[in-house]
Design goal:
The chain has 5 helices and 9 strands. The protein has 239 residues and is an alpha+beta fold. It folds into 2 domains: 121 residues, no CATH class; 110 residues, Sandwich (Immunoglobulin-like). A 4-stranded antiparallel β-sheet has the order 6-5-8-9, with no helix packed on it. The chain has a 3-stranded antiparallel β-sheet with strand order 1-2-7, with no helix packed on it. A two-stranded antiparallel sheet has the order 3-4.
Length: 239
């Protein structure tokens, strides 16, 4: 009898490992790419959680136990590999919501809980989806002591005539472009330079931490310049 009870107990554990919260797979963008391995050490689910699973459990579950996918979790780097969770799951700004089509390119999705699984770069297919420059609103805002600023650099469309000039086609170029991202106080004085370099088309996230600067509470401006493109947004530091 005891042996039978023990066998039943082991069977229940096995079933729990297999069916442990599979609904959460559909609550992150491109979750089906790695399934339960997004959050668990075991690809079958259940058991110990990896770095991303621990982050989700600690900070991003609602009262019903569902994953809250937003810009905050997208901007974090759970496995410490230098790429945000959003970058790895092809939703760098955390705009995807349950019920929407998976963003980006499925083949480029990497595991946000495995530091050995890293994006290899922005694909040509993905670049064609970035059609305009865009400077996102920082998150969180108001902030203290740090916030993340995200922006996108599109692939440039170049006109290319056929040899007989009978037709003109468009092609994508991935040439680097000089990008600057600076922070100013409300009267226009520069307080920080976050980016000043040539960059390829793609999505970028930069962290602005006030620990490196002597800043008081108030409104600040951050400005992106890339070629002829200039965009400025406001953010609020609240101590």
């Amino acid at each position: 009898m005891k042996k039978m009870i023990f066998i039943i107990f082991l069977s229940l554990i096995s079933l729990t490992n297999i069916f442990s919260f599979p609904f959460r797979v559909s609550q992150i963008p491109n979750g089906n790419r790695f399934g339960c391995a997004n959050c668990h050490v075991s690809p079958f689910g259940g058991g110990p959680r990896n770095a991303f699973g621990q982050l989700v459990e600690q900070k991003y579950l609602d009262q019903s136990g569902n994953v809250t996918w937003n810009s905050s979790i997208a901007n974090e780097d759970a496995d410490g590999d230098g790429f945000s969770n959003g970058q790895e799951l092809q939703d760098p700004n955390g705009t995807w919501r349950i019920g929407q089509a998976d963003p980006g390119i499925a083949a480029n999705v990497t595991n946000p809980g495995d530091r050995n699984s890293k994006p290899v770069g922005t694909s040509v297919e993905e670049l064609t989806m970035i059609t305009t420059y865009n400077l996102e609103q920082n998150y969180p805002n108001p902030f203290n002591p740090e916030t993340v600023i995200s922006y996108s650099i599109p692939a440039v469309k170049v006109r290319q005539a056929n040899h007989d000039n009978s037709d003109v086609t468009l092609r994508q170029t991935q040439s680097d472009i000089l990008v600057t991202l600076k922070v100013y106080d409300i009267i226009g004085r520069e307080v920080a330079t976050l980016v000043n370099e040539y960059q390829k088309p793609g999505y970028y996230n930069y962290k602005f931490a006030i620990g490196n600067y002597q800043l008081s509470s108030g409104v600040y401006l951050y400005q992106l310049k890339a070629g002829d493109f200039i965009q400025t947004r406001k953010m609020i530091l609240m101590k």
